[in-house]
Amino acid sequence: MDLEKGSREEPGGEGRLVVALRMPVRIVVLVLVVPVRMVWDALVVAGRFLGDRVFRPVGRALLWVGRAVLVWPFVALWRWVLVPLWRWVLVPFGTALRWLGTVLVVVPAGALYRWVLTPLGHAAVWFYARVLTPLGHGLAVCAAAVRDALLWLGRGLFVVPAVWLYRWVLTPVGHALLWCGRGLAWLGSLLVTGIGTALYWTVRVLVVLPAYAVWRWVLSPVGRVLAAVAREVGAAFGHAWRIAGYVSLAVGRALAAVFRWTVVEPARWVYRTVLTPVGHAVRAAVLRPVAQAARSVGRVTRDALRSVRVTARQVRRDVRRVLGMPAGPPGIGTREKRPVGR
């Protein structure tokens, strides 16, 4: 609308050029954009199909394999080997080591601290309070006296002469130099102002005014024409992209219908009428007997582990009895025996 208004307001100018270029540009852009949009839509559909039907199931399968290979063996090792070993072997051994450490290390160390180190510490405190402290106070008084004497000598020999020299020699000389500097600065500013004014008018006449004329009468009209052409090309790309989307959608729906009636529906019929009965037969004839055998093996394994735990408890009580430690009543630390199969 703005371009049409411009064409009516300025006949023979920018508006007529835009109107003349609009339809050819849109036709050319549409021919170029339709294949690109169809390829883009095909890639999007293929990516979604691969993500939903291939990558996600493969990722789940890899995750299950990773758990079966890396996680479950370590969990079984921790639960059925390391935890019983720590509970029934390492804990009694650690208790015995702690008792030996108390007898051989802690008790001698306590006696050494009480009868040797404590008297030495009291003697050191007395030596610090009765000898080192008075000596330090005397050294501090001597140092203060020497400091005061040095300060008095420094004031008489350096500070007073320096103040007199600053007041009666350096200050008048500085005032004279400051006055001379102000005069020189005024003269320099006058020269710089004259030279700057001359350079300003020279640059203005030789550079600024010609550049302004070129910008106003050459670059600005050419820029307006190029901007109008660029706007029309952008609008043509937008219209062509939307039209190509509709075309791609229609082609995609047609291809989807053909694929559904040639591939999906026959595959669904094969799955319902052939594969499902075969799977039911395999489950009834193979998978269920295998599962029952696995449950029987699990029961036998649990019984064997229960026997190992009972033996480990008996060994622990014997070790504590040999070390002279209270073994506790037989029922402490044991769990009620569960019926087989629970």
Tell me the total number of β-strands. 0
Work out the helix count: 2
Q: What does the main sheet amount to?
A: none
Mean pLDDT, nearest integer? 79
- What is the beta-strand fraction? under 5%
Overall 3D geometry?
flat
Question: Which range best describes the helical content: under 10%, 10-25%, 25-40%, 40-55%, 55-70% or over 70%?
Answer: over 70%
Question: Helix and strand succession?
Answer: HH
Rg on CA atoms, Å: 51 Å
Protein name: Integral membrane protein
Transmembrane segments: 27-50, 62-82, 88-113, 125-146, 152-171, 183-203
Keywords: Membrane, Transmembrane, Transmembrane helix
Primary descriptors:
342 residues; mainly alpha; 0% strand; disordered C terminus; transmembrane helix; Integral membrane protein; transmembrane; membrane
Describe, in plain words, how this protein is organized in 3D:
The protein has one domain. By secondary structure, the protein is mainly α. It has two helices and no strands. The chain is flat. The longest helix is centred in the middle third of the chain and has 309 residues. Helix 1 packs antiparallel against helix 2. This is Integral membrane protein. Keywords: Membrane, Transmembrane, Transmembrane helix.
Topology diagram in text:
Blueprint: H1 2-9, H2 14-322
Offer a concise description of the structure:
The chain crosses the membrane at residues 27-50, 62-82, 88-113, 125-146, 152-171, 183-203. With 342 residues, the chain is mainly alpha-helical.
